[in-house]
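Forum: Protein Structure Q&A
Topic: Joint prediction for protein chains with partners

I've read a bunch of threads here and the consensus seems to be that you should model interacting components together rather than docking separate models afterwards. I'd like to see that in practice. Below is the full input, 626 residues plus whatever partners are listed. Could one of the regulars post the assembled result?
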Amino acid sequence: MTWLLPFVGGVGALMVLLVLGIPVFAAFLLVNIAGTLLIFGVPGFGLFANSIFNTATTTALATVPLFIVMGEILFRCGAMDVLFDALDRLVGRIRGRQFVLCILLSAILGALSGAAMAVAGLLGRSLFPAMRQRGYDTRLAAGTILGGAALDPIIPPSVLAVLISTIAGVSTGAMLIAGIIPGLLLVGLFLIYVLVRVHFDPTLAPEASGEMSELRRGSKLLAVIKILPCSLVFLLVMGLIMAGVATPTEAAATGVAGSVLVAFIYRGLSWRVIAQALSSAITISSLMLLIMCSAVMFSQLLTFTGATQAMANSVVRLDLPAPVMLFLMMALPFVLFMFLDQLAIMMVLIPIYKPLLTHYSFDAIWFWTLFLIVATVGGLTPPFGYILFALKSAARDLPTSEIYAASWPFVWLIVLGMVILAVFPSMITFLPNLMTAR
Amino acid sequence: MGLEVPTPISSTAVPPGPGISSVWRSLASVHDAITWASFIVGAALVAFMAVSVCYEVVARYAFNAPTSWASAFVSYALCIAIFVAMPELTRTGAHVAINLLVDKVSSVHAAMLARVIQALAAVACLFAAAICANESWHQYIEEIETIAVYPVPKWLVTVFIPYGMLSAGIYFIRHLCGERVADGRGSP
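Posted by a regular:
Agreed with the consensus. Here's the joint model:
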């Protein structure tokens, strides 16, 4: 049990520092410096410096700023207005059409940017007031925005998927592709949920005919044509990865070029848009990658002390059935993500989970995709889900308690989706396997 | 946040007072100017990465003439970009943190806690800066090169790590000394 002391000491110190409110990267640095000094002494500082350098020069991580630039350009060039207008024409005469529109728009935005907070903020400012004005149920409207935004890190391109695959050491391309069917499944579940609720309680949404009179009339064909350029960016990025033609980094860079072209087509291209996109990209990616660079040494120290393997061995000795183990391995981060930073939890849990996957013969892409969904749910669960705060900042008059209540049905819908994906693993592995087969 | 002209930091962020000399304010202004310039370099490096990788894709697939430098230079650019942007993130208080405790305690205790946080973060950054600077110096003396198809002296890339850590550490100390965070974004 020589591993227990460094494990409990390291994780305990890290948790104390995090709860105190120290920036996540600085908390990892403090624990790593102390750990390196205790385990290796001063000569170990070379390892410390090299772990930061090696992480920061991981070419696969260049995908992170590139995906962010791509999404930011599309967000800022007016593509969102075009998409909204086109979808508004495409969604038919059904009661609760704004709920449907919101979920579909979120899914498409997820396929273009993957920034859940940005989508929640955007829809909270634009669609949410319009829905309330038209007499839509406030709680369900807020829920569709929250649930829709939560889809974004699942539907590729997803920065979170890139980070998880890099930490877990699995194919980034496969992880990105694996998110497509789960994303569509969740879109389906959300749509069924809102339509069933509106069917049984018509007071949740106004008459469709009343709404149609307010709609901009126009050709559906024109709407499809308007969506085409954005769809091409998605198909370009995912198609290149799936066809095995380009690495995720190359596909992301091609996506940046595609987004510049789309911005030009939509007449939204300007130096200001490019500069703002680059500024956002370096800010967001630096924040995330700094945590990664600072945290990698922590998992290396856990491995060196034997804590990771010993923890895995102890869990294996419990001899729990695979479904129970899967449930526990998902339940733990589900609870932790409610209160703590996603990346910090991932950096601690993923190295501990890796040996267990081999023992239980879990498919790595299947497991980490489920983990990705759990991480996404963390942004939606009260009291600290970051998507909740994004909606709150966009709709300030909406009580926090109302936002919390709005989020829960969608949390449980995602959990239901996870159960389906756990029972039918091929829903996740089908597309990545197609890619591997090539 | 766009690439607008930075706010006149020294006149707003550093309140004049008996404890802060004009020399200190001048140094703070220089520090802020370097921070802003390095943040712009970080943004430019992201553009460089996008252009380099696109060039590589075209060169490889259209002309069957892959470059020897693109992959290595993108990884170097990523490392440099992360750490040259770091000081600006610290200046604006943008780092990710869990505000669970700070939000729960009274304002007096929150202020005390903030000082403890800034002190600990400063220690972490300055210690890491010293370790990484020592490593970069060692690489310079030993003439160590990066392991890549297109190797370069390793210190040319790693030297930006201690720069980012040192500058961020100084910002934490400046915040500790009573300077307010330049932009009220706070932790995401």
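The two ends of chain A are 46 Å apart (CA to CA).
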